[in-house]
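Human: Here is a favour to ask of a fellow structure person. Comparing notes only helps if you start from a blank page. I am asking you to supply a protein in sequence and structure-token form. Write it directly below this note and I will take it from there.

Assistant:
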Amino acid sequence: MDSTTHLAAVHAPAGHRSAELSSGSAPGIQGPLVFVFLEIFAWEGGIQSYVKDILAAYLEQPHPVPADIFLLRDGSDCPNPYDCFPLRFHYLASASPALGRARLVAALMRHLILHRPRQVVCGHVLLLPLVSTLCRWLRLPYTVMIYGKEVWEPLPEREQRALRQANWIWANSRYSRDRACTANGLDPARTFMVPCAVDGDRFNPGPADPALVATYGLTDCRVLMTVARLWSGDIYKGVDVTIRALPTIAAAVPTVKYLVIGRGDDQPRLAALAEALGVSDRVVFAGFVPTEALVAHYRLADAYVMPSQEGFGIVYLEAMACGIPVLSGDQDGSADPLQDGRLGWRVPHRDPAAVAAACIEMLGGRDPRCQGAWLRQEALAAFGTSALAGHLEQALASYSVA
């Protein structure tokens, strides 16, 4: 598959409406929209980052209609750079989770009855029982956003039925779309691809900050890096696999170190693993790094390594936009940002030997996939913010022809 065919496969919505909508001839949306999310600003993570990109892309639409956004866990004190017309935010956070849910039910029901929006976009399957019930009761169409593992396996019958009854589903990767459809009996023709994006103005190449190099003890080192939550429930991120690969990597690249960015309750286990393998001096746990400081940390790396199982993997795009070669798992949504291996290494995600071999190749720098300028160019061409705005425009246009 050549790159043009690949990108068409990644971005085209499935089913019979693809050609009709890709022409851009659909009329504008009639009537307001409603989005319902768990949270956007109170926590940082891949889904939250993706949703922020969706909001930015919404504001870039040629003629965006007013949209009301209901946030279950965010409070009005959260920093929100998108709080401007035509977006209107409803913050429903409460000290009591039960009270927060009750506030969401009351506020959303009242709004839907009074305003009868053109479409309700459910931002997570955990909100689907509420959104689908209200929309069916009021005879309103709804869309469901899916991201990854939350829909890869069969859902309870109630949620499956609500997914099947949705007018549209937005998926961020081909892999998540296909697994969700197979597991839950969904119609691929009702699925739109709305992939993740990276801001090339924010994430860009540059020299390593000498202060950070000194802070982390990376002087004259070859640096592997991972950005991930270190939660015991998220071992699929593959930090432990990379640590297991380090002895083999170090035998070929004696100056290698592994910079791990993130926090969570699994860090003690990972540190103990590094100690047991005799590589504790090569593993640097940097802890939490805020979004605004991530670019400077990417610039410390010679390679980005995350043999994971991702719904998409925004971090791969961020690394490539900074000119850093990347490694991912080979059975997940990372096929899209890595363009089926054209832009990076895809290996079995629990195989330390495969990770070690790929890391040695990356640090060798001779493979074309190590060319930073080319990596950045290709990543931004397919997944820059302007590309996301175009995909969102097509998805929103479906609300005018449905």
